[in-house]
Amino acid sequence: MSGIVFLKKRHIRTTSLTRAVLREIMDAFEAVGIWFLTVLCLVVMGATVWLVTLNTPIIYYLLLTYATALSLIIAAPVHSMLTRHLLDEIFLGNLQSIINGMIAASTLVVVVATGFSSLIVFWMSRIPLQQKISFISLSTLLSLFWCIGSVLSSLRKERIFFFLFVTGMTLTLTLFFVFRPVKVEPLMLIFSLGITIPVAGGYGYVVRLYLREKTRMDQIFLKRSESFKIGISLFTFYLGFWMDKFIFWFSPKTGQAVDPLFHYYVEYDYPFFVATIIMMVGSVMVYKGIKRKIIAPYEAFIFKLSNNFPFRELAIEKKRLFHGIGQVSQSVLIIYGGISVYILFLLYIRIIPPPWLPWKNPFVFYYLLLGTIFFSLYFFYFLVIQYLDDYNSLLKLNILFLTLNVSGSLISLYLGDKYYGIGFMTASMISALAAFVMVNSKVGGLEFEVFKKALQQKS
Prior knowledge:
- This protein is 82% helix and 1% strand.
- It has helices spanning 2-13, 17-53, 58-92, 95-124, 129-154, 158-179, 184-210, 227-250, 266-278, 280-306, 311-348, 362-387, 391-415, 422-444, 446-458, and strands at residues 256-257, 263-264.
- A hairpin with a 5-residue loop joins strand 1 and strand 2.
- The chain is globular, with a radius of gyration of 23 Å.
- The N and C termini lie far apart (56 Å).
C-alpha cells in the first residue's frame, strides 16, 4: 500500500511536457515580455506610419526614448528604497504599511517626474506645446509604471503585472489600427493609454487585496538608515547605462539635433537598439537563474543559520548557492555569448548584406553586442548582490561602471568612429569581472555578513 501511495505522489509531482513548455514560455515572458511587447508595439506603429507617410516619426521615438530614460533614472531611487522597505514589511505581515508606502512613493515620483520633465522641456525644447504636454504625461506615467512594477515584484505578482501590460499593449495596437494616426500627438496619446492600464490595474489590485484601514502618507522608507545608499546605487546604475547614449547624442562631433533638448545619433542608436533586443536572451537566463538557482538556496541558508542547524547543513546550502551562481554565469557566457558571436559571424561573412542594415559603421554593433554579453553577467551579479542586501558594495560597483562608461565613451569619441561603442563594452567587461570577485567574496563569508547585518539592525 505504501508503495502505491509513493508511486501516486511521484506521478502527481511529474510535470507533463506541455506544462513544462508552457512554464518555460511564461518564465521567459515574465523576464522580457514587457520589453519585447513594447518594442513590437513601437516597431509596428513606426513601420505603419512610415508606409503611410514615407517619413520615419523621429520625434515620436525621441519623445519615447527620452521619457523612458528620464523615468528610469528618476524613479529608480524611490522604488528601490520602497522595495527594500516592503521586503521587511511583507516578512512581518504589515499589509497596511504596503499600501501607505506605495502611495507615498507614488506621490513623490509624480511630483519629481512632473517637475523635472516640465523644467527641461519648457526651458530647453522648442517642440509644440501639445508635444511638451505629451512628453511630461508619458514621463510621469512611466515613472508610476516602474513604481507599481517594483511593488508587484516584491509581492511576487509579476504574472498579474505582465497580463495587465499585455492588455494595455493590445489596446494600444487596436486603437492604432482603428484610427490610423500619423501625427505625433495622437501616437503619444494612444501609447500612454496602453501604459495607463497596467498602472491603474496594478494599483487597483494592490489596494483591493491589502487595504485594511484608512490610508495615510507613510515616508518611513525614506528614513531608513541605508535609504540613501539604496537609492543612489540604483540611480548610478541606470545613469551609467544611459550615459554613453547621452555623450554621443550631445557631442558636437556626432549628435543630430531636433532642438536644443532632443538629440539623436543614428549610427549609435540603431545598433544599440538591436543589441538590446538580442540581449533579451541573456535577460531570460538571468531571470530564470535568480528565480530557480539563487533564491531557494539563499533562503534555505538563512533559515538554517537562524535556527542553529549543524554546519554540515549550512555548507550544503552554501555549496548549492555557489553552484547556482556558477551555472547561471556559464549559461549566460556560453549560450548567450555563443548566440552573439554567431550573429557577428553571419555579419562578417555577409549573410546579412550591409545595405540591409540601418547603420553604416559596422564596428559600433560589434562592440555593443559583445558588451551586452558582459553586461548580462554584470546585471546578474548586480541582482545577486542586491539580494544579499549589500548596498555598500553595490554602490561602489555601479560608480565603477558609470565612470568607465563615461571615460571610455569620451576616449572613443577622441579616437574616431572605429572605436564608437568600446566604452560600453569595456565598462561592462571590467564591471562584470569586479562583480564576479565581489559576489564570490560575499558568498564565501556569508555567515559573517548575515550576523553583521543582524547586529547593525539591533543597534
